[in-house]
């Protein structure tokens, strides 16, 4: 029962580290604190981006291919173009997040991505398809914002779990889009809408409103940093947790012997990798981050997928 009680507390209560104001628990079952709200918005923004980014995939094999008279090679090229845009955007998004914070950059990407997501109705050729999918690929940059957002709000003991869950739930948008877009397309066809119009209308009905709505939620309900504004992220808290008081003078009445006990508190040993410290980005700090194996080894592993 105590284990269940502890798990429930971790999932519903924000345990804040007074040294850096980051959360040491993962209160995903509560919306009563900024950590829960920002965690929700981080993966929801990523989810809505994936919903739109992959919205073409379930419609291309039947509707789009037939309507635009596409070849298999042209479909493959459009998929590659969509991914290439993301590679470039993510490199740009990183410094923008460092400068303005993940919340604002996330909202901007969702709004920018909503524009090309509403333009499939104007596509009449394979060239137009390439251009639209290229700019929809902007939404792939929200992955950077999602991971940076959770990293900002959660401490080293839980940040890996927070990043994994937010990324996993966000990625599920790419799966939900197959269900949503196909169901909507079929519904429009059954209602008498032509194939030429149905797949185009589907983008305006689902991805565009979702992207704009989530962007507004991020701006209205999200926060930049546990300290408040992104400009205050380098502020170090002056609060220090109190040490537990020592117990002494424990009397054994049976033997009439006075025993003294003192609690010894040993400092926790931390490596440099486990310390969460806010630092201003400088060329020296950037070079150090890029040169450490903690940066390039995960990058190589991700690239090999």
From TrEMBL:
<keyword id="KW-1133">Transmembrane helix</keyword>
<feature type="transmembrane region" description="Helical">
    <location>
        <begin position="130"/>
        <end position="154"/>
    </location>
</feature>
<feature type="transmembrane region" description="Helical">
    <location>
        <begin position="75"/>
        <end position="93"/>
    </location>
</feature>
<dbReference type="InterPro" id="IPR011701">
    <property type="entry name" value="MFS"/>
</dbReference>
<dbReference type="GO" id="GO:0015112">
    <property type="term" value="F:nitrate transmembrane transporter activity"/>
</dbReference>
<feature type="domain" description="Major facilitator superfamily (MFS) profile">
    <location>
        <begin position="38"/>
        <end position="305"/>
    </location>
</feature>
<feature type="transmembrane region" description="Helical">
    <location>
        <begin position="105"/>
        <end position="124"/>
    </location>
</feature>
<dbReference type="InterPro" id="IPR020846">
    <property type="entry name" value="MFS_dom"/>
</dbReference>
<feature type="transmembrane region" description="Helical">
    <location>
        <begin position="166"/>
        <end position="185"/>
    </location>
</feature>
<dbReference type="InterPro" id="IPR036259">
    <property type="entry name" value="MFS_trans_sf"/>
</dbReference>
<feature type="transmembrane region" description="Helical">
    <location>
        <begin position="35"/>
        <end position="55"/>
    </location>
</feature>
<dbReference type="GO" id="GO:0042128">
    <property type="term" value="P:nitrate assimilation"/>
</dbReference>
<dbReference type="InterPro" id="IPR044772">
    <property type="entry name" value="NO3_transporter"/>
</dbReference>
<dbReference type="GO" id="GO:0016020">
    <property type="term" value="C:membrane"/>
</dbReference>
<keyword id="KW-0534">Nitrate assimilation</keyword>
<feature type="transmembrane region" description="Helical">
    <location>
        <begin position="197"/>
        <end position="221"/>
    </location>
</feature>
<dbReference type="Pfam" id="PF07690">
    <property type="entry name" value="MFS_1"/>
</dbReference>
<protein>
    <submittedName>
        <fullName>High affinity nitrate transporter</fullName>
    </submittedName>
</protein>
<comment type="similarity">
    <text>Belongs to the major facilitator superfamily. Nitrate/nitrite porter (TC 2.A.1.8) family.</text>
</comment>
<keyword id="KW-0472">Membrane</keyword>
<keyword id="KW-0812">Transmembrane</keyword>
């Amino acid at each position: 029962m105590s284990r269940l009680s502890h798990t429930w507390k971790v999932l519903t209560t924000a345990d804040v580290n007074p040294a850096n104001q980051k959360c040491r628990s993962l209160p995903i079952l509560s919306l009563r604190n900024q950590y829960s709200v920002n965690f929700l918005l981080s993966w929801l923004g990523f989810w809505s981006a994936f919903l739109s980014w992959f919205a073409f995939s379930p419609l291309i094999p039947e509707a789009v291919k037939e309507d635009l008279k596409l070849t298999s090679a042209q479909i493959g090229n459009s998929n590659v173009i969509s991914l290439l845009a993301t590679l470039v955007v993510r490199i740009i998004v990183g410094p923008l997040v460092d400068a303005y914070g993940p919340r604002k950059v996330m909202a901007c990407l969702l709004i920018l991505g909503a524009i090309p997501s509403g333009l499939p109705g104007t596509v009449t050729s394979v060239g137009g398809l390439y251009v639209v999918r290229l700019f929809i690929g902007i939404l792939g940059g929200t992955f950077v914002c999602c991971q940076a957002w959770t990293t900002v709000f959660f401490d080293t003991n839980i940040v890996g779990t927070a990043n994994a869950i937010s990324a996993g739930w966000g990625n599920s948008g790419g799966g939900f889009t197959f269900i949503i877009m196909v169901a909507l397309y079929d519904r429009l066809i059954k209602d008498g809408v032509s194939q030429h119009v149905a797949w185009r209308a589907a983008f305006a009905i689902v991805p565009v409103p979702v992207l704009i709505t989530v962007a507004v939620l991020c701006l209205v309900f999200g926060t930049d940093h546990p300290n408040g504004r992104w400009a205050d992220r380098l502020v170090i808290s002056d609060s220090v947790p109190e040490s537990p008081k020592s117990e002494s003078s424990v009397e054994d009445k049976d033997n009439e012997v006075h025993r003294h006990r003192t609690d010894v508190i040993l400092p926790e040993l931390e490596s440099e990798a486990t310390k969460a410290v806010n630092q201003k980005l400088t060329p020296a700090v950037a070079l150090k981050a890029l040169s450490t194996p903690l940066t390039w080894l995960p990058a190589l592993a991700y690239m090999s997928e």
